[in-house]
Model the fold of this input.
Amino acid sequence: MSEAFKKIASLRRIWIPCAIAAIAVFIGMLFSRNAELAGRLNELMESYDGPWNLMRDKSFPYDSLFPKEMRSQLEAMFGHARQWYQTRDFKVGRNLSEQGAKPRHPVILLPGIVTSGLESWSTTQDEAPYFRTRLWGSSSMIRKALLNKDHWVRHLMLDPETGLDPENMRVRAAQGLDAASYFAAGYWVWSKLIENLAAVGYDINDIYLASYDWRLSMGNLEVRDHFYSRIMAQIEFNSRVYGEKTVLVSHSMGGTLALYLLKWLEYQRGSKWIDNHIEALTSLSGTFFGVPKSLPALMTGEMRDTVQVPDVLSNLLEYYFSAQERAELFRTWAGSASLITKGGDAVWGGRHGAPDDMENSTMTHGIMMEYAEHKKDNKTESEKKLTMDEVYPWLAMHTDKYFQRMLHTNYSYGIERDPRKLRANNKDPTKWANPLEVTLPHAPNMKIYCIYGWNKPTERSYWMKEVPPEDALNERSPAGSSHSQTLRNDSVSKRSHATSRIDGTFNDENAIPTVNSGVRMGEGDGTVPLLSLGAMCVHGWHMERYNPARIKVVTHEVMHNPEAYDLRGGVSSGDHIDILGSHDLNEAVVRIATGLGDTVEERIYSPIREYSKKIQW
Ligand SMILES: *[C@@H]1O[C@H](CO)[C@@H](O)[C@H](O)[C@H]1NC(C)=O
Ligand SMILES: *[C@@H]1O[C@H](CO)[C@@H](O)[C@H](O)[C@H]1NC(C)=O
Ligand SMILES: *[C@@H]1O[C@H](CO)[C@@H](O)[C@H](O)[C@H]1NC(C)=O
Ligand SMILES: *[C@@H]1O[C@H](CO)[C@@H](O)[C@H](O)[C@H]1NC(C)=O
Ligand SMILES: *[C@@H]1O[C@H](CO)[C@@H](O)[C@H](O)[C@H]1NC(C)=O
Done:
């Protein structure tokens, strides 16, 4: 056991120099004209070995592949090497350790969408060279995606009919703590939390990172990978070996997955088992009611930071893949459909207004999608307005039959108020990921902690425009690369084509909320709106209907107050991902794990309570 720990520890020791080396090489490439700098960086590089040597390949055409503005973004991203190297983050753990905190509950980490690495397990002639290399979640992913786009897409696409691997292709989630500690060189995800847990005495024996193939639908995770069975076995193992209940810590979509997991466990083992084996569900930046931006992403391939990756990466993907290609790829990822907004107009509002509109709003978020028609006298009038309830059938209408069938058989987006029907839904897996259609398990000793950031503008509703079908079909990726043959040739090409886009040319500074590039911003953590993060925690689960066992639910908000000099916002960020490095959150999670959960206080800065009252529960 201690050997395994040593191995991990040494891995981490290698990791940091590797990250630095990769960054150095990147900068070297970007500034190859500055010979002196490049020379020095190469020298630095010589002293390290590792997977990043790939990037030294001189034949890689950085200059022609990256447009100028992207090079400067990369420069900004990789240019603060020293800051990343300096970790300040054992602090929280050391402090708590001095105060006597000791490991108590074993911890299972459930990552969010896209933060788990994916690797190839294909063994055919063509694919063998990529065997066990990361197709997602590493720096070499950028390289693979750009140099061999068709190949990369073919690998990451799922069979639209079964939602599983296409023929001859196998892609699996990377395993172990490193699967989601870092997303790519230096871009940390879980590593700070792991460091702080380690500082109070945790190690690989009592932290289990449940990485999963986030492309799969929640049902298929069990069908193909026995994902929930594995977690169940781990929880039972924890109880047997440590004699303690397990703490689940989820991030982002992991929160939705955790709800599904609880229902699955209840179905398999009963709620008594949950009460006896699970100490707490700690949801970080949880996506309980979904994310509005999943709608344009699935409909039109719009990304921005839809998938929560560094901006520079989503820009890269937007640049090299047309909207059409992106939408087709996303739609085979049934897992992402779990982020479709839940609750319809009852939660998100209608023409009369939305729960999270401000008093002085001139436009309501209740209109989720509005089609702009530009008039000659500079006034804009909308010709079509869709509320959330109207967006669902509209999404179905604009997507192919495979996607529609997948949605229909895997997910449900409604709201259920009848306790008898709620009980019946315990046997219906399509409802399990929607907290509005199922009850929490009858586990009165379990606790739920909702920890999330607030005070960062977040996409909430959209101005759209119609694109004639021929244009959508012929649309090339802006980089001018040819439309992927992979996408053209297989069954996918017979799908109906997206005919709507966010109207990126539309701005209105005078409206409240303002419209920037066709997007109306609301409140939240930068990715997930406040309603989705908090309404269930401060209101829904305080209702007997959704929480019959009266499981204690604690809401702990983190004010987004980023440090100016730190790219990731430093120790006081409330950003959707960067919050994983905030002192406040780290302290709360370590306290919960070490059995001091009672000291994590209910704390609310945002108007979530007022907003929640306006939801039509
Ligand atoms: C550690 O504890 C000291 C006092 O006990 C406090 O001043 C300091 O802010 C704490 N640091 C962190 C990172 O929590
Ligand atoms: C979910 O969708 C997949 C296709 O992605 C389908 O094969 C499966 O039967 C659906 N239903 C369940 C319960 O998994
Ligand atoms: C609208 O109201 C909010 C508070 O409800 C305030 O912060 C904001 O400044 C107001 N905007 C305008 C333009 O008055
Ligand atoms: C419309 O706006 C443009 C600039 O945005 C301005 O030049 C033009 O005069 C405006 N036309 C009218 C009729 O206001
Ligand atoms: C796709 O179709 C084109 C012609 O329509 C053909 O040249 C190409 O080889 C096909 N690609 C694959 C991967 O089948």
Confidence is low (pLDDT under 50) at residues 8-18, 24-58, 475-498. The first strand starts at residue 107 and ends at 110. The pocket of 2-acetamido-2-deoxy-beta-D-glucopyranose (ligand 4) is lined by residues 377-378 (CB under 6 Å).
